[in-house]
Amino acid sequence: xxxxxxxxxxxxxxxxxxxxxxxxxxxxxxxxxxxxxxxxxxxxxxxxxxxxxxxxxxxxxxxxxxxxxxxxxxxxxxxxxxxxxxxxxxxxxxxxxxxxxxxxxxxxxxxxxxxxxxxxxxxxxxxxxxxxxxxxxxxxxxxxxxxxxxxxxxxxxxxxxxxxxxxxxxxxxxxxxxxxxxxxxxxxxxxxxxxxxxxxxxxxxxxxxxxxxxxxxxxxxxxxxxxxxxxxxxxxxxxxxxxxxxxxxxxxxxxxxxxxxxxxxxxxxxxxxxxxxxxxxxxxxxxxxxxxxxxxxxxxxxxxxxxxxxxxxxxxxxxxxxxxxxxxxxxxxxxxxxxxxxxxxxxxxxxxxxxxxxxxxxxxxxxxxxxxxxxxxxxxxxxxxxxxxxxxxxxxxxxxxxxxxxxxxxxxxxxxxxxxxxxxxxx
Amino acid sequence: xxxxxxxxxxxxxxxxxxxxxxxxxxxxxxxxxxxxxxxxxxxxxxxxxxxxxxxxxxxxxxxxxxxxxxxxxxxxxxxxxxxxxxxxxxxxxxxxxxxxxxxxxxxxxxxxxxxxxxxxxxxxxxxxxxxxxxxxxxxxxxxxxxxxxxxxxxxxxxxxxxxxxxxxxxxxxxxxxxxxxxxxxxxxxxxxxxxxxxxxxxxxxxxxxxxxxxxxxxxxxxxxxxxxxxxxxxxxxxxxxxxxxxxxxxxxxxxxxxxxxxxxxxxxxxxxxxxxxxxxxxxxxxxxxxxxxxxxxxxxxxxxxxxxxxx
Lengths: 427, 311
Description:
The complex is a heterodimer of chains A (427) and B (311). With 427 residues, chain A is an alpha+beta fold. Chain A has helices spanning 2-21, 42-58, 70-83, 94-102, 110-116, 153-158, 167-181, 194-206, 223-238, 253-259, 271-279, 281-285, 318-328, 331-340, 356-359, 367-373, 385-392, 395-404, 410-426, and strands spanning 30-37, 61-68, 89-93, 132-133, 136-137, 140-146, 148-152, 265-268, 287-290, 304-310. In chain A, helix 2 (42-58) packs antiparallel against helix 14 and helix 4 packs across helix 17. The termini of chain A are far apart. Chain B is an all-alpha fold. Chain B folds into two domains: 2-52, no CATH class; 77-310, MetI-like fold. Chain B is 74% helix and 1% strand. In chain B, helix 3 (70-77) packs across helix 14. The longest helix of chain B has 35 residues, at 18-52. The N and C termini of chain B lie close together (12 Å). Classes of the chains: A alpha+beta (427), B mainly alpha (311). The interface between A and B is medium-sized, with 34 and 29 residues.
């Protein structure tokens, strides 16, 4: 009985093994796995999926598209690269692209970039240095980020002031707004998060301070840097115009502060603008979208970064991935995605800013020139791996936290940070 | 196995009949797939982590240079690590102590007879059923500067005039994290101690009554000694779980303000995932190993010793 049972099972197994392949003449579908970044609205994520699925159907490819949230992207990418179970296309923040390029786990995409750069006036070139390593490009910009200075013009006018032009204006107007409206007006994060790293760099650059000099050597411990640190300490401790809770904020906290009308000034990309336009007409009408205020020398600065699509070295479908991206970047497809995301996504092609969607947005009339003028991490030096590493190591935000939480002198906080930057550069 | 003694090959040969040896071998054969899975899922990652802690490797990198104890020297010299290590102990000890006190009090209450006891039991257990991440998010809102429930309540009761920044003061932040941890963790104590209380013979309490003893004496001389094994086991488990906690600190403060509320688990995440230095992260996690080895030996000994005694 036992022998009959075992023989029967073996026979069944052999039959099913051969039956799978027998009589099936249709070409097998290839599979392409595409990890995008969550757009913060379902419609845009779904649109991406629809566009990619259409390409898949036309080319007999089974496209698996997943939108990864910002909260889990680091862990997900880490696990994928460590286990070599990477997708065929991956969408990164630009500093991730730089990092993984230095780890030699991404493919160069210069050929694809050259082809795509011929359309729509070409790409805004400001972000390209952060996607480049050893002279090769490892990511194609998908959407640009730039930092706006959001201003509650109703509160500013309520204290008898005009829109701030300089950081001294911001400090002064903040004190007045706090006295009259009892809010902590400047929603500047002071915790060890991306927002602190990026937004503090814009303030530093406007003061003529920087982490690296033109040659890429560390040059952080300067009088200009100390001015910025003292400004932020004064606003946090003495004037109390930066919220006390800013030392434990996450990357959405300054958005929340502005959206809940608890802040009068924040530095943020386009997500707050889009939220206000769709959800709070009063806030939208009372918001002015300005350039980053100038430092004492009249210098204005801005930082740009982007989401980039990259192809991992371990992807077995690199050629297919490039074909898919060529389709995605066709202007009729790409523009649909950009416009669907509202102003959360900023276009990577110059000519798209001349479309009615953008020209009709009067609050963003200076966007084109802002994108052209903005700098990337490492400025005024090259955008190096050390600069990217310094950002993810949170040296700058740690120095701010040491100053305001542990009451370290600004001089010592800056000195320690300078030492930390130099140590990272040696690695 | 008789008497709980290890069954080695020689022991088998000398002390068991052929049939008994066959039975034991079959048992091990059935256990073999589980052992294989444990080797793959536990031992291999553990050994990899140990190796990584002696190398210099970045996340996603294909290269790893051996650096000896360099990572450990970095940690010893790091104020952030020393603070996180100390925080792990203070956070764990205080949380476990409060969980025990809250657990024993609620267990004693639930062991008494009163109306709607069943409903109250369910309500007491509910925090334990909530997803830790959701609980952490909710507590973050409770202690939020902006429209947080704690500030609204205290201001309505006129106990404070201005909102308190609960999560931006290092001492208050850790207090808030402990509150959240205890809220979710004490039901485990309640369940275990309640089960233990139900096994204590009533005659013992009646004997105390006859001797003229009071409630405190009953608690000290009957209840606590009877619950000793349950308390030890529950406390050890709770200590291990609490020491390993991640979501409350990560969600509520991110380790801030100024890295002052980091514990071992969140610091491991920070170094490994955020700073992409998996070697240093591995070294951080290894520093907790001696603690867990000691606790595991004591826990296993406590549980196995109890099992042998019960035979």
